[in-house]
Amino acid sequence: DAGVIQSPRHEVTEMGQEVTLRCKPISGHDYLFWYRQTMMRGLELLIYFNNNVPIDDSGMPEDRFSAKMPNASFSTLKIQPSEPRDSAVYFCASKTGSYEQYFGPGTRLTVT
Amino acid sequence: KQEVTQIPAALSVPEGENLVLNCSFTDSAIYNLQWFRQDPGKGLTSLLLIQSSQREQTSGRLNASLDKSSGRSTLYIAASQPGDSATYLCAVNTGTASKLTFGTGTRLQVTL
């Protein structure tokens, strides 16, 4: 398997623009997670899905952030409008059952 | 709220040394614990997963132990190599068995 796939790998955008990050989980995995990593706050869970259904979005910082999982092989994280403080590395991860989580390579977002 | 602490924050050792990385957590009612490594600018690579019913897990030169009652886990690396240089993160699954709480990591450098 190719592992968790994320795109784009790097995104530079101006404040106020909409940003969409994409993730393809490992085939057969029924959980999908979105994380954000910054120097100040470390790794934080934003939201996770089980069988395409959002289970816990308590980590989503504010209404500017939204996530969808229209099918088992695709998820998006959208920020609208983006702000400089959203600059971070965003990771997607997937797993099945009680087994380990596998992370994608991340998307480095820079908002100027 | 679960809090995860890793000590030391940074460590430099000469090649060939055996070393121990420490992870402590405040809520002992965990489901499992996972150790990761992260190379600079890269995603997280899963190293070991210990279920709450287990005391230790081994993979090659790595051995992870878990003492739930005292809220501690250690990652033992035998015969360290320069290729082991990375940041090591521990993460704890509490409650729902899906939400990982990460420590801040130990940055390891193995010198020649």
Number of strands of chain B: 11
**Beta-strand content of chain B:** over 45%
Task: Give the mean pLDDT of chain B.
Answer: 93
Largest sheet of chain B: 6 strands, mixed
SS summary, helix count of chain B: 0
Keywords:
heterodimer; A: 112 residues; mainly beta; seven-stranded mixed sheet; four-stranded antiparallel sheet; 11 strands; 55% strand; globular; B: 112 residues; six-stranded mixed sheet; five-stranded antiparallel sheet; 0% helix
Question: Would you mind describing this structure in some detail?
Answer:
The complex is a heterodimer of chains A (112) and B (112). Chain A is mainly beta and 112 residues long. Chain A is built from no helices and 11 strands. Chain A has strands at 5-7, 10-13, 19-24, 31-38, 42-50, 53-56, 65-71, 74-79, 88-95, 102-103, 107-111. In chain A, the strands form 2 sheets. In chain A, strands 2, 4, 5, 6, 9, 10 and 11 form a 7-stranded mixed beta sheet that branches. A 4-stranded antiparallel beta sheet of chain A has the order 1-3-8-7, with no helix packed on it. The N and C termini of chain A lie far apart (36 Å). The mean pLDDT of chain A is 94. Chain B is mainly beta and 112 residues long. In chain B, the strands form 2 sheets. In chain B, strands 2, 4, 5, 9, 10 and 11 form a 6-stranded mixed beta sheet that branches. A 5-stranded antiparallel beta sheet of chain B has the order 1-3-8-7-6, with no helix packed on it. In chain B, a hairpin with a 4-residue loop joins strand 7 (62-67) and strand 8. The radius of gyration of chain B is 13 Å and the shape is globular. The termini of chain B are far apart. Classes of the chains: A mainly beta (112), B mainly beta (112).
